[in-house]
Amino acid sequence: MLRSMYAGVSGMKGFQTKLDVIGNNISNVNTIGYKKSTINFQDLLSQNMSGGGANPMQVGLGASTGAINVNHNAGSSMTTGVGTDLAMMGDGFFIVQNPDDVGTDVGQYLTRAGNFTVTNEGNLVNPQGYNVMGFTNTAAQGDDFVAGDLEAIVINPNDYDSFSINRAGEVIGKAADGTETILFGLGISNPENPTGLNKFGGSLYEMTGGASALGINAQTVEGANTSVASGMLEMSNVDLTEEFTEMIIAQRGFQANSRTITTSDEILQEVVNLKR
């Protein structure tokens, strides 16, 4: 009876965690670049009742959380018409860096949220003010892009009246006389195991050893085998129909486990009453 009560408690804890995951997914249904999480359970150790017989006699001791994984499937795209809004078409992540950590790779993060803006100094930044990173164009003039060093994307307003970003991830500056020059190529990171990334908050991810042993390995958009859509944003990949279905399952599972505890308590009460 005590085993069944403890098993019921472990089940209730597990389904409570499942409800926490589902609630977070639903709350981020309209978050740009958000990737939903999923939870899996596994059984706990089993108690051996007897060593005899052809087959082992065991009683399980409940369930526990096996894994909480992030589903990195692409979300739907939303047209905004804003030139600095970028959507990743394919695998990979944008690279942003904390301006306080310029010159190091400690403050670099990955994101799928492409709602970028330009500061009055010409820096392309995300909503947190982190610089969007790209490769400088080492070619003297702009038809052929030659990747140089990875650095913050800055479009000098004194040199260029406007700029645009094409599907190849090239940042093209346009001067007052109409001359166009390829200034940067967007830096893209394509981790070996995106599920191993650590959520940092603000739609940012930290690189971990489980995601890639090489750290943030930057490459151009073409090298990442993807493309960039300007004037669009990638929305959350949360499916409300699926989340509500999982919520019903979690709710019923929580109720069933609480019923196990209630029934075990009733049986235990009957045992106590045998003395009377």
From TrEMBL:
Pfam families, sorted? Flg_bb_rod, Flg_bbr_C, LlgE_F_G_D1
Keyword annotations for this protein, in alphabetical order, are: Bacterial flagellum, Cell projection, Cilium, Flagellum
Record has Kinase as a keyword:
no
Q: Locate the Flagellar basal-body/hook protein C-terminal domain: which residues? A: 230-274
Nucleus recorded as keyword: no
**In this protein, which residues make up the domain named Flagellar basal body rod protein N-terminal?**
5-35
Cell location: Bacterial flagellum basal body
Chief location of this protein within or outside the cell = other
Give the highest taxon in the source lineage.
Bacteria
* Segments forming domain Flagellar hook protein FlgE/F/G-like D1: 87-171
Q: What is the purpose of this protein?
A: A flexible structure which links the flagellar filament to the drive apparatus in the basal body.
| Family affiliation | Belongs to the flagella basal body rod proteins family.
Q: Per its UniProt record, what PANTHER family does this chain match?
A: FLAGELLAR HOOK PROTEIN FLGE (PTHR30435:SF1), FLAGELLAR PROTEIN (PTHR30435)
Protein name per the record: Flagellar hook protein FlgE
Protein species of origin? Planomicrobium okeanokoites
